[in-house]
Design goal:
Blueprint (H helix, E strand, L loop, with lengths): L1 H21 L12 E6 L6 H17 L2 E6 L6 H8 L7 E6 H5 L1 H4 L11 E17 L7 H10 L5 E4 L5 H13 L4 E4 L3 H10 L4 E5 H9 L3 E6 L14 H4 L7 E9 L4 H14 L3 H10 L2 E2 L4 H19 L6
Parallel strand pairs: 1-2, 1-3, 5-6, 5-7
Antiparallel strand pairs: 3-9, 4-7, 4-8, 4-9, 4-10
Helix pairs in contact: 2-11
C-alpha cells in the first residue's frame, strides 16, 4: 500500500500537469451520442441513486441530451467508477460519484479496481451532505457531553451501527471514538436502513446516518438527534447543533457528490460539462428538493472537486490506520 500512496501522490501532480497541457490543444467536439449515461456505483433506491435521479433531469436540460441513470453496484461503488474509467472519454459516460468510493475505499479495500486519481477526470462538484449522530430515544442522553461522559465511564457498552465495514458512517464512529478517547462497539450492517431499525429498536445505542434519511426518523421522534457532523448547522435540522458547537471542536465530516469522466477527457469538453452541471445546480426545483433533504448545493470548478477529494483522501487515511476490509 506504501507504493500505492506514492503512486497516488505522483498522480495528483501528473493529472494537474496533463490538465494544463491539454488546454493548449483543440479538444474534439462533444460526442454525437444522443444519450448520456450517468453511472451510479450503488443499487437503485439508496440515497446516492435517489440524488442522481433528482439531478439527471436538470442536467439533461442543460446538456440538451437525454440523461439515463445507470446503476453499477458493487465494491463500495468502485465497480461503477471502473465502468466509467474504461469508457470512451467523449462525454457520453459520466460518473455520479459518492465521496467514500474515492476517498475511503482506496484505504480499506484489499483490491481497488481503479486508481481514483489516474483513471478518472474531475468535472464538477455537485452537493455536500452531513451525517447526523442519533441515539436510541430511551437512552438517558440528550447532549454530546452526556454521550461522551457515558462512553468514557462505560468502555465498549455503547454500540453503533453502520452500512458496513469501511463505510463513511463506520469511520465517522471511529473518528469520534479516537477524538474522545473511548471504546465504542461497532456493528456493521448491509446498508444504513437495517442499522437504523436496530437503533430505533434499542439493539444499538447510536449511529451516524446521512441527514437526508435520518431527518425523517428524528422528526417523528423515533430517534434523538445529538449533533450534525458539518461545520455549519444543517438547514433541514436547524435546531440540531454541530459537533463543534456541542463540544468537540476538532470534529468535522462531510460527504459529497461529484461528476467525473474517464481519464484523459479533453479539457474543452470538461469545461462544457462543468458549465452544464453548474447551470443545473441553479434549477429551482432541484434546489428545493435537495435543501429540504439536507443537501447543500456545491457548484464549482474541477479544481475545487479535486482539492476536496485530495483533502478527504488524506484525512481518511489517518482514520483507517492501515486496517483492510473486503
Amino acid at each position: 500500500m506504501t507504493r500505492f500512496f506514492s503512486r497516488t501522490r505522483r498522480a495528483w501532480a501528473q493529472a494537474a500537469f496533463a490538465g494544463a497541457l491539454s488546454l493548449a490543444f483543440t479538444a474534439p467536439a462533444w460526442s454525437q451520442a444522443g444519450t448520456v449515461r450517468l453511472v451510479v456505483g450503488y443499487a437503485a433506491g439508496g440515497p446516492v441513486d435517489a440524488a442522481a435521479r433528482q439531478f439527471a433531469p436538470a442536467l439533461a436540460k442543460e446538456l440538451g441530451r437525454t440523461v439515463i441513470v445507470e446503476n453499477r453496484a458493487g465494491v463500495a461503488g468502485a465497480l461503477g467508477a471502473e465502468s466509467v474509467a474504461r469508457a470512451p472519454a467523449d462525454g457520453a459516460t459520466l460518473y455520479f460519484a459518492a465521496s467514500p468510493t474515492l476517498t475511503i475505499s482506496p484505504h480499506v479495500l484489499k483490491s481497488m479496481p481503479i486508481d481514483p486519481v489516474k483513471d478518472l477526470t474531475p468535472i464538477s462538484p455537485v452537493s455536500t451532505y452531513a451525517n447526523a449522530l442519533v441515539v436510541n430515544k430511551d437512552l438517558p442522553i440528550h447532549a454530546l457531553a452526556e454521550l461522551i461522559a457515558y462512553a468514557k465511564a462505560n468502555p465498549g457498552k455503547l454500540s453503533y451501527g453502520s452500512a458496513g465495514m469501511g463505510a463513511s458512517n463506520h469511520l465517522s464512529g471511529e473518528l469520534f471514538a479516537k477524538q474522545i478517547g473511548a471504546t465504542l462497539t461497532h456493528v456493521p450492517y448491509k446498508g444504513n436502513a437495517p442499522a437504523m431499525t436496530d437503533v430505533i429498536g434499542g439493539q444499538l445505542s447510536m449511529m451516524f446516518d446521512i441527514v437526508s434519511t435520518a431527518r425523517n426518523y428524528i422528526s417523528s421522534g423515533r430517534v434523538r438527534a445529538i449533533a450534525v457532523t458539518s461545520r455549519e448547522r444543517n438547514a433541514s435540522l436547524p435546531e440540531v447543533p454541530t459537533m463543534r458547537e456541542a463540544g468537540l471542536p476538532g470534529y468535522e465530516v462531510i460527504g459529497w457528490y461529484g461528476v467525473y469522466g474517464p481519464a484523459a477527457m479533453p479539457a474543452a469538453l470538461v469545461t462544457q460539462v462543468n458549465a452544464a452541471v453548474n447551470r443545473a445546480l441553479a434549477d429551482d426545483e432541484l434546489k428545493k428538493q435537495w435543501v429540504a433533504q439536507g443537501y447543500d448545493l456545491w457548484p464549482g470548478t474541477p479544481a475545487v472537486l479535486a482539492a476536496q477529494q485530495r483533502k478527504d483522501f488524506e484525512m481518511w487515511r489517518g482514520v483507517t490506520g492501515g486496517i483492510r476490509f473486503e
